[in-house]
């Protein structure tokens, strides 16, 4: 079995060198300080998101973020037993923020998963086959990429009504094109490599070449893009909720919490600041993790 660069030319073996062992990957991540900090923050954020999902899915826990007490309206952090204060209805901001993180991450993970598979499939097909197939897929990608995300969300919300499903559909229908463009470009550069030509000469079906040889070679870039698009989805979900197109009350949403909190910002800033800071931390964590993954997975970049 001969190896050229990062690729294995024996078509009976994997198209890429086997992934690094977990210990080596963790070592590289630790050496990359930006990625390491991003990984720690991302783990914390997802832990909070899982806690928020448990709150949302367990009816017996709904009282933690839904119970109103007007006598404690807009209490400051630490007042009346509420660590981060209360909103205009006296509801605990800590539990509402945790539940809101659960909603944001649910939307982000769903949209990123959908767009990842769609972008991988169409980008790989267009890049490998070329010709008319590539022309058609590229036209669809360019057309989709040209639509404003907010316009798509408004149209879908008009058809389905506001809520979680329209937000997921709107974000997915636009950002998949970003995955597809990058995957298409990388597959086009790979399809003339010796290991792909050898596989075609041996009569390997195109579907097997794409799945076994093309996709593993672009997964590094795709993983980096996925971390960025999760952050994009978090921001988009918050924006849609801010203007009333996202998850509807009484389910907490960080964007809706900010919108409600701005009405009292002049004398009670915490109802708007707390969810805003949480969004900033989520986006920062995912972007730092994406930068670290890029440095580790791209051999042309310095890894520490």
What would you say this structure looks like, in words?
There is one protein chain. The protein has 304 residues and is mainly α. It has one domain: MetI-like fold, CATH 1.10.3720.10. It contains eleven helices and two strands, in the order ββααααααααααα. Strands 1-2 form a two-stranded antiparallel ribbon. β1 (3-4) and β2 (7-8) form a beta hairpin. α4 runs antiparallel to α5 (131-145) and α4 (93-129) packs parallel to α11 (270-297). The longest helix is centred in the middle third of the chain and has 37 residues, at 93-129. The radius of gyration is 23 Å and the shape is elongated. The model is unreliable at 1-21 (pLDDT under 50).
Features:
single chain, 304 residues, two-stranded antiparallel ribbon, 2 strands
Concise description?
The chain is mainly alpha-helical and 304 residues long. It has eleven helices and two strands. A two-stranded antiparallel sheet has the order 1-2.
* CATH homology group: MetI-like
Gross morphology is elongated
- Describe the sheet with the most strands: 2 strands, antiparallel
The CATH architecture can be named as: Orthogonal Bundle
Task: Break the fold down into its secondary structure elements and pairings.
Blueprint: E1 3-4, E2 7-8, H1 22-31, H2 33-57, H3 63-66, H4 93-129, H5 131-145, H6 149-160, H7 164-190, H8 194-201, H9 206-242, H10 254-261, H11 270-297
Antiparallel strand pairs: 1-2
Helix pairs in contact: 2-4, 2-11, 4-5, 4-7, 4-9, 4-11, 5-7, 6-7, 7-9, 8-9, 9-10, 9-11, 10-11
């Amino acid at each position: 079995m001969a190896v050229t660069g990062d690729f294995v030319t024996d078509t009976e073996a994997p198209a890429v060198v086997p992934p690094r062992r977990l210990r080596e990957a963790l070592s590289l991540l630790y050496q990359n300080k930006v990625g390491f900090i991003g990984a720690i923050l991302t783990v914390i954020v997802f832990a909070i998101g899982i806690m928020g999902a448990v709150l949302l899915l367990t009816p017996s826990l709904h009282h933690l973020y839904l119970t109103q007490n007007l006598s404690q309206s807009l209490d400051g952090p630490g007042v009346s037993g509420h660590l981060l204060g209360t909103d205009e209805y006296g509801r605990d901001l800590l539990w509402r923020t945790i539940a809101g993180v659960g909603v944001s991450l649910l939307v982000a993970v769903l949209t990123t998963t959908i767009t990842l598979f769609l972008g991988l499939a169409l980008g790989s097909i267009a890049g490998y086959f070329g010709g008319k197939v590539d022309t058609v897929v590229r036209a669809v990608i360019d057309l989709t990429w040209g639509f404003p995300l907010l316009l798509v969300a408004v149209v879908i919300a008009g058809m389905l009504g506001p809520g979680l499903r329209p937000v997921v559909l709107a974000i997915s229908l636009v950002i998949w094109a970003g995955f597809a463009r990058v995957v298409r470009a990388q597959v086009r550069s790979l399809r003339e490599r010796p290991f792909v030509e050898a596989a075609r000469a041996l009569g390997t079906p195109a579907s097997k070449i794409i799945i076994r040889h093309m996709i593993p070679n672009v997964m590094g870039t795709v993983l980096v893009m996925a971390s960025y698009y999760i952050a994009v989805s978090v921001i988009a979900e918050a924006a849609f909720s801010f203007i009333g197109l996202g998850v509807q009350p009484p389910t907490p949403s960080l964007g809706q919490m900010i919108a409600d909190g701005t009405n009292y910002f002049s004398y009670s800033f915490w109802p708007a600041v707390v969810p805003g800071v949480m969004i900033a931390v989520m986006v920062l964590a995912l972007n730092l993790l994406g930068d670290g993954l890029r440095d580790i997975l791209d051999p042309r970049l310095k890894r520490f």
